[in-house]
From TrEMBL:
Residues 219-423 form the Glycoside hydrolase family 3 C-terminal domain. GO terms for biological process: glucan catabolic process. Residues 63-144 form the Glycoside hydrolase family 3 N-terminal domain. The keyword Hydrolase applies. Keywords: Glycosidase, Hydrolase. It comes from Cuscuta campestris. The lineage of its organism: Eukaryota, Viridiplantae, Streptophyta, Embryophyta, Tracheophyta. Coiled coil: none annotated. The keyword Hydrolase applies. This is Glycoside hydrolase family 3 C-terminal domain-containing protein. GO terms for molecular function: beta-glucosidase activity.
Length: 431
């Protein structure tokens, strides 16, 4: 394969064809792998949550492997103005360079399904794009398994089109063959019913410990003046503030319990406030105020503050945003608290947001994304039990007027570059 990163045409596909002919070895769950490459979209979907103890459905025979779904093929991370399910305008070289690379290793590693995007590419709906779906995905990449769809939505239309000669039966046979391959590999013909004997392990301590580890490894430290971090566990009096400091639903974001997620006590877990209380010295007084004003700050003394603000839960098009700002009262909380005392601000969001106006007030700043239910991982790094190791998975812009903006662009002038991240003592940037 030629250099995909520079947008060269993929020519050496023999390895793909050889590797992807390997047999499937049995699965116990369907696992969705989001491999979309965000192109600095304004309204991008939220990033995957890192700290939720997620449930799986076990198949009756194999319990050690998963049937994965790579999605959404292809280009949904680059739609115009970031609008969900909208149109991506891009040439072939840039498509290969920016949006296609994640699919190559996914297919080589045996991903069982690829979900086609609801978005369009240069004005053509991806579901109606034979060049990419039929010729490139099935042909060039030799993808032999399953491309899922909503059968209840399309079955009547599809039946009509077949009966009236618009769609040939060999096209139906191809789709059915792919479905049967996955079902055979999962043993569903031998035993179609789920085995619930392992269900009591869902949300176990081992699962939550792993989720906590994922949280602390995914946090990205972007500023640490002083340095303020790591925070001392023993202090006279500290303040924890913000809309996301004591709210599990806000920590989890969308796709949690409900499609759009929901604020409040929606699931079992730990809030960031609870995590802080559990780790500080017993003699340290922890004061919580969700949205303290200037009067409150002026009448109280604190050693330092932890401010946790961010986006409220959303999924898909409900997350579309034209300005990408921190929702109120987040900015007001940052201004009141960080303008008065030393503070670390933890941003909970599914994407980079406009933060430059507030950075001069903030001593330390960390991106937590949507960390999920096991946010002891946040306190792990804030208080120095573990070092920050996360790096930005995408460029952090200064203003939305810069978007779209990618590493190779002539106007590349980020607030924080792709791959940037600090430890508590030194930068670990990697462009």
């Amino acid at each position: 394969m030629k250099n995909v990163e520079t947008g060269s045409e993929v020519t050496a596909m023999a390895a793909f064809r050889r590797e992807t002919k390997m047999g499937l070895h049995g699965f116990y769950a369907l696992w969705e792998l989001l491999v979309a490459s965000p192109s600095c979209r304004i309204g991008q979907k939220s990033l995957p949550k890192f700290g939720s103890a997620t449930s799986v459905i076990y198949s009756p025979i194999w319990r050690t492997k998963v049937a994965a779904c790579a999605k959404h093929f292809v280009g949904d991370g680059g739609t115009m103005h970031g609008k969900d399910e909208s149109n991506t305008v891009i040439d072939w070289e840039e498509l290969l360079r920016i949006h296609m690379p994640a699919y190559y290793p996914s297919i080589l590693m045996g991903v069982s399904t690829v979900m086609v995007s609801y978005s369009s590419l240069n004005g053509e709906k991806m579901h109606a794009n034979p060049v990419l779906v039929t010729n490139f995905l099935k042909g060039t990449l030799n993808f032999k398994i399953m491309i899922p769809n909503n059968h209840t939505e399309f079955i009547d239309t599809l039946t009509y089109l077949v009966k009236n000669g618009f769609i040939p039966m060999d096209r139906i046979d191809d789709a059915v063959t792919r479905i049967l391959r996955v079902k055979l590999a999962m043993g569903l013909f031998e035993d179609p019913w789920a085995d619930l004997s392992l269900a009591d392990q869902l949300g176990s301590k081992a699962h939550r410990d792993m989720a906590r580890e994922a949280v602390r490894k995914s946090l990205v430290l972007l500023k640490n003046d002083g340095p303020l971090l790591p925070l001392p566990k023993k202090a006279t009096r500290i303040l924890v503030a913000g809309t996301h400091a004591n709210n599990i639903g806000n920590q989890c974001g969308g796709w949690t319990i409900a499609w759009q997620g929901k604020s409040g006590n929606i699931t079992t877990g730990t809030t960031i406030l609870e995590a802080v209380i559990s780790v500080v010295d017993p003699t340290t007084e922890v004061v919580y105020n969700e949205n303290p004003d200037a009067e409150f700050m002026g009448s109280n003394e604190f050693s330092y503050a932890i401010v946790v603000v961010g986006e409220y839960p959303y999924a898909e098009y409900d997350g579309d945003s034209a300005d990408m700002t921190i929702p109120e009262p987040g900015p007001a909380t940052i201004t009141a608290v960080c303008g008065s005392i030393k503070c670390v601000t933890v941003l909970v969001s599914g994407r980079p947001l406009v933060v430059e106006p507030y950075l001069p007030l903030i001593d330390a700043f960390a991106a937590a994304w949507f960390p999920g239910s096991e946010v002891q991982g946040v306190s792990d790094v804030l208080f120095g039990d573990y070092e920050f190791t996360g790096k930005l998975p995408r460029t952090w812009f200064k203003t939305v007027d810069q978007l779209p903006m990618n590493v190779s662009d002539s106007h590349y002038d980020p607030l924080f570059p792709f791959g940037f991240g600090l430890t508590a003592t030194q930068p670990i940037a990697d462009s």
